[in-house]
Specification:
By secondary structure, this protein is α/β, with parallel strands linked by helices. It has 13 helices and eleven strands.
Length: about 400
């Protein structure tokens, strides 16, 4: 791919508002109601009102249409609306889309949102229930006959290859689970608040799809999360210090599949994360050593290790030792393993809190935070920075 100019987007927009519902296992509410609550909370946090919003971005999977949510919240005319595909891989891309709209002048205030009843409604962890007569459905035909029916089973294939390639054991994944739950234990918003775990707990948890244990798998959550993006100039007039969008990227690898990419040159890696990493480092002018904290998409523990390696924080096969050494603050909200599974949107909110200095697991002096989106699928990433 061509080299990316450092000034392509960075510094022209910022996240100025964050808002969420409670994270539960049975909301008893519609996904629209959850989305509306999260959007209202994010606008209030930004010091803005529904009438200020002229753009909206969400996931292609989201069930709350932009115009329906706009009516529910009281948002008026829209000049920009967009949706991003590939599930959790869309998380950071929603902010990228918002930043592009603001930087190009097609919108002034853009709301990014995601809301679902993933525990009490459609359970993604249940895997494939019906094969659709579509190109996407046909692609799954290469793995379904072999019993690879769920996300856990797809990731287990890559995880097994990773362990084999580097001579490791499944216990190496436990460091990610323990770190996430340690942070979640101090986070009142987290489902696992007050409930840390040990490596022994991880090793004792039941197998889901070897080499993945229960504590290697993220939660299922009902809830909503929203973010507000506007220009940096306007952001400086609002109540909170802006989280500057220093760099943003999307990435799909050559021959990309959806969590079933077992046939590439390196089946023990995440090439789509590498595509995003190269863009973020080039676009920001930063390097791994400049990052003060990382919010890495943790739907399954092995993919946190692979992301650390793809982004250059450590060498291939060294991710487990890197996490065990506590070399970089990771998922300070508890992640999707410990706080909630909101397709990564709650991780972006945590990055904003770190830059504001309001995280419950605050990293002193944090100025650059890396955020990643779903892996094993076309994905996205952000570097958010402090202003000035």
């Amino acid at each position: 791919m061509s080299a990316r100019r450092p000034d392509a987007l960075g510094g022209r927009a910022a996240v100025v508002g964050i808002g969420a519902t409670a994270f539960t296992k049975d909301s008893g509410r519609s996904e629209l109601a959850l989305a509306a609550e999260a959007v209202r909370a994010a606008l209030a946090d930004a010091g803005l009102g529904p009438g200020d919003v002229d753009g909206m971005v969400t996931f292609s999977m989201d069930t709350s249409p932009e115009i329906t949510l706009a009516r529910a919240v009281g948002i008026g005319e829209l000049s920009f609306f967009s949706r991003v595909h590939y599930g959790g891989g869309a998380a950071c891309a929603t902010v990228q889309q918002a930043a592009l709209a603001v930087a190009s002048g097609v919108a002034e205030v853009v709301v990014c949102y995601r809301a679902f009843n993933e525990r009490s409604g459609r359970r993604f962890g249940a895997g494939v229930q019906h094969r659709q007569p579509s190109a996407e459905g046909v692609a799954l035909g290469w793995v379904l006959p072999f019993g690879l029916l769920t996300p856990a089973s797809w990731v287990a294939m890559t995880a097994r290859r990773y362990l084999h390639t580097y001579g490791l054991t499944p216990e190496v994944f436990g460091h990610v689970a323990v770190a996430g739950r340690r942070h979640a234990a101090r986070n009142p918003a987290a489902h696992f608040h007050g409930r840390p775990i040990t490596l022994a707990d991880h090793a004792a948890s039941r197998w889901i799809a070897e080499p993945l244990r229960l504590l290697d798998c993220c939660q299922e959550t009902d809830g909503g999360q929203a973010l507000v993006v506007t220009s940096l100039e306007r952001a400086r007039t609002l109540p909170h210090p802006p989280a500057v969008i220093t760099a943003a990227a999307q990435g799909a690898a050559r021959g990309q599949e959806q969590m079933t990419g077992f046939y590439g040159d390196e089946p023990a890696g995440l090439p789509e994360a590498g595509v995003v990493a190269r863009q973020l480092w080039a676009g920001s002018g930063l390097r791994p050593a400049d990052v003060d904290a990382a919010i890495l998409y943790d739907h399954f523990t092995p993919y946190v290790l692979l992301q650390l390696e793809e982004f250059g924080f450590c060498g291939p096969g060294e991710g487990g030792a890197f996490v065990a050494a506590d070399a970089l603050p990771l998922n300070t909200h508890g992640g999707q393993l410990g706080e909630a599974y909101l397709h990564g949107m709650n991780g972006i909110a945590e990055a904003v809190r770190l830059l504001r200095g309001t995280s419950v697991n605050q990293v002193p002096g944090a100025r650059h935070v890396l955020v990643t989106a779903g892996t094993g699928v076309p994905t996205s990433g952000l570097i958010l920075g402090a202003d000035g």
